């Protein structure tokens, strides 16, 4: 099988590594740190299966265009991609599917939005409706800060058109976890749960990011948690989508808060998460290429299997991230990091310098993954790998997988 992975970050590098165990892989546009990268539009690539990584091309209808050309695609069409393209649509879908989720409201006018905000008990969540690269969410205990954020988003001054409608939610408390399901339109099979770290600072402080760390499996969850999520959340969602005429074939990512009343849905994403899917995908022991091809054809027949070890990922970030990131710095120590036992380094925001050396080219530059028999050993290996890397301004969290992160959303 020849598989084309669409995208160019750490998630796509992980997909390429795993798919290449059983298939020939090409990545577009990829980046200079991902083997098999080509600068060719996906529509011009000859492949047996297309796996679309990021959300933007899915929202823009890439899967529809490829399918119209007779290609086999793992990834939802534009109608299914609205689940992530519009948080208001996602919340409506959750209500129609009778899923446990936070009390919320959808607003495009400031006054009713602020009136609803004042009815909430003290942890406020304000989300842009549209895509915002994982940065369109404010979580705060300050009513004044939430009020200012609502006004800024609805005015278009922070996220332009993506923020002119907002979803305001009552904040939930508890560990936040990710469960990925591979869907064939009718059936879904779960992958092991993971947890990612969204805030830039140790102790889960500072602004939200696209994700700066992750680990899997999660020892604080029961062994049947992922199966329960598929039964309680994913399958009812697929049923509702089918009633809407949507044949959803791709990954569905459920972001959940494990509250005192049980798991509640925070968000759905229409693809494998980044970086939390990396710590799941790299532990696969079965043929992931065949599994995704089965889902794309509309009939999953196999059950994925995974190693019983642990994986911990820490993102090495460029100076300035999550704000404007400094780029163009030479990445030192990559070979030394990859030579360590149990360490995998994935290229995320990586470019090529004038002298042919790899340089920083984004905020999240490298994903350093440690694998070991326990979370503690996997964590030790990940940070040992980080210790080999250097460039001006490199920074990372120091507490990934030291304890479960208590969500505040």
Fold topology:
Layout: E1 2-7, H1 10-19, E2 24-29, E3 49-52, H2 55-59, H3 62-68, E4 73-74, H4 78-85, H5 87-96, E5 104-107, H6 110-117, E6 124-128, E7 137-140, H7 143-155, E8 166-170, E9 173-184, E10 188-190, E11 195-196, E12 199-201, E13 205-208, E14 213-216, H8 225-243, E15 249-259, E16 262-269, H9 278-281, H10 288-297, E17 310-317, H11 334-338, E18 343-347, E19 350-352, E20 358-360, E21 364-372, H12 375-387, E22 406-408
Parallel strand pairs: 1-2, 1-3, 3-4
Antiparallel strand pairs: 5-8, 6-7, 6-8, 9-10, 9-15, 9-22, 11-14, 12-13, 14-17, 15-16, 17-21, 18-21, 19-20
Low-confidence stretches: none
Which geometry do the CA atoms define? Answer: globular
> Please, what is the average pLDDT?
94
CATH class identity of the largest domain = Alpha Beta
Quaternary state of this entry equals single chain
Report Rg.
20 Å
Number of domains: 4
Structural class: alpha+beta
CATH architecture assignment of the largest domain:
2-Layer Sandwich
- Please report which band the strand proportion falls in: under 5%, 5-15%, 15-25%, 25-35%, 35-45% or over 45%: 25-35%
């Amino acid at each position: 099988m020849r598989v084309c992975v669409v995208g160019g970050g750490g998630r796509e590098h992980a997909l390429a590594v795993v798919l290449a165990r059983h298939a020939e892989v090409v990545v577009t546009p990829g980046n200079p740190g991902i083997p098999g990268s080509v600068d060719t539009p996906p529509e011009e690539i000859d492949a047996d299966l297309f796996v679309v990584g990021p959300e933007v091309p899915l929202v823009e209808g890439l899967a529809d265009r490829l399918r119209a050309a007779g290609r086999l695609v793992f990834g939802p069409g534009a109608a299914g991609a609205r689940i992530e393209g519009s948080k208001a649509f996602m919340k409506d879908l959750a209500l129609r599917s009778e899923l446990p989720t936070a009390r919320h409201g959808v607003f495009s006018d400031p006054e009713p939005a602020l009136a609803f905000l004042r009815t909430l008990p003290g942890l406020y969540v304000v989300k842009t409706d549209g895509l915002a690269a994982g940065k369109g969410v404010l979580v705060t205990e300050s009513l004044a800060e939430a009020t200012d954020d609502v006004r800024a988003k609805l005015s278009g001054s922070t996220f332009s058109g993506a923020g002119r409608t907002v979803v305001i939610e009552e904040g939930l408390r508890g560990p936040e976890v990710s469960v990925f399901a591979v869907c064939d339109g009718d059936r879904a099979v779960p992958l092991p749960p993971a947890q990612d770290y969204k805030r830039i600072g140790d102790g889960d402080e500072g602004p939200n990011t696209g994700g700066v760390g992750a680990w899997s499996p999660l020892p604080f969850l029961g062994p049947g948690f992922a199966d329960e999520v598929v039964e309680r959340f994913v399958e009812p969602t697929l049923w509702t989508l089918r009633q809407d005429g949507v044949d959803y074939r791709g990954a569905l990512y459920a972001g959940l808060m494990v509250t005192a009343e049980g798991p509640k849905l925070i968000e759905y994403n229409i693809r494998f998460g980044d970086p939390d899917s990396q710590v799941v995908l790299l532990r696969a022991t079965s043929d992931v290429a065949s599994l995704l091809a089965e889902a794309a054809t509309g009939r999953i027949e196999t059950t994925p299997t995974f190693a019983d070890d642990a994986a911990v990922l820490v993102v090495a970030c460029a100076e300035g991230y999550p704000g404007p990131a400094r780029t163009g710095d030479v990445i030192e120590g990559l070979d030394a990091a990859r030579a360590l036992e149990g360490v995998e380094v994935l290229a995320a925001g990586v470019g090529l310098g004038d002298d042919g050396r790899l340089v920083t080219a984004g905020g999240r530059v490298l994903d350093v993954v440690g694998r070991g028999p326990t979370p503690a050993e996997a964590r030790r290996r990940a940070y040992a790998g980080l210790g080999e890397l250097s460039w001006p301004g490199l920074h990372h969290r120091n507490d990934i997988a030291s304890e479960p992160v208590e969500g505040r959303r």
